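Retro notes
What went well: the complex prediction finally ran end to end.
Inputs used:
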Amino acid sequence: MQVTSDEVVTLFPRVAQSIADALGRDVSDVRLESRLIDDLNAESIDFLDIVFRLERAFGVKIPRGQIVESARGDLPESEFAVNGFVTDIGLDRLRRYLEEVPPERFRSPFRTGDIPLLFTVETFVKLVARALRMKSKGAGPAS
Amino acid sequence: MGFILVDRISGTSPGRARGVLKLPAGVDGAPACMAAEAVGQLAAWIAMERSGFCLRPVAGVAGKVLAPGKPPAAPLLDLEVEIESLDDRAVIYSGSALASGREAVKLEACLGPMLPIEKFDDPERMRSLHAELVSSGRSEGSSGPPEFPRIAPRRIEREGGIARAELEAPREARFYADHFPRRAVFPGTLLLDAMIRLAEPVAAASLGLTEGSAPSSVSVSGAKMRAFVEPGAILELEASLERVDGSSARLRLSARAARPVATAGVEIAFEEAP
């Protein structure tokens, strides 16, 4: 389910404000390409805070692990990651799903625990866009 | 002395719960952070019970904590929580504590990450204690009357609109027996209490008041606990003035060890500000 650039442009300001509020930063620090962990110093509590702020701001539900589950798609978990590392096919799924992330960042071997390092503000904009689409269809959580 | 700050869960309905905390004899009003801890603990009991005592929340985010400068005196705190959402990620709640009908503290948009209860306590002990709380109420024998020992920062330095200090989480304290039996963690509300008390003289001075001036109200926003504080940890605290607005001052609070541990914003108001 591709997210359009119009959707990204429309949603970015409110998503950026939610992220800025969660991280105690000025909204001007939060750019579309900003990496949540490496650029904005987000930690695990911040990810929870951001997700809940987005849920509240947009009236959507974003289940735990939504990004990875959506990237994995119909690939069985056992083929997505083995012994804490993302498989090559899993990495390919991630790379295609997180198209806003530069492809060179998807390097094997890739620890599953490092997946959040890939996330940018645009990742969350798209997460919200998909959740809003699902909500408008009256369906469950977004993919 | 224990750190169980709910004596009885007096009523539950979908999404809401009420409880009571009896203050120890001689305590003339619960400090705001103690009242906030009590409200948080009531929310935690509800969350634990709904998870089947598999998960429990820990301190995470307090969107807003509002309290009068002087806690209203009463032997009991009446606690109320509203659970806005609860799943295996976190509990989100708001609530309040009333002392003789007067608001001792109000909490909004609080988030407690849910973690496996067995890492902190015996699930069956918690189940049993919960049963006690919802029936006759907690017997004092379990861990004694509640305590909220206010830990004073040391090596306080003030320059202009900034105060810095050191806070040592006690290596041993009775409250660790309840917080938590399987993993001793210095309570976030005790840390927040120390951070606010570091800020109060800075706020007073910024408004031209004497350092000991008593605030008329304290409003904390965006308090976030980023890491557990272990017994014996030494934290660097900082309170820095952001702005003065009429009769109140807004400050940024932080606590760090090798990495940031806690951050918060606080607005402290005074009645006597010129």
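What we learned: Strands of chain A lie at 81-82, 85-86, 110-111.
What to try next: split runs per interface for comparison.
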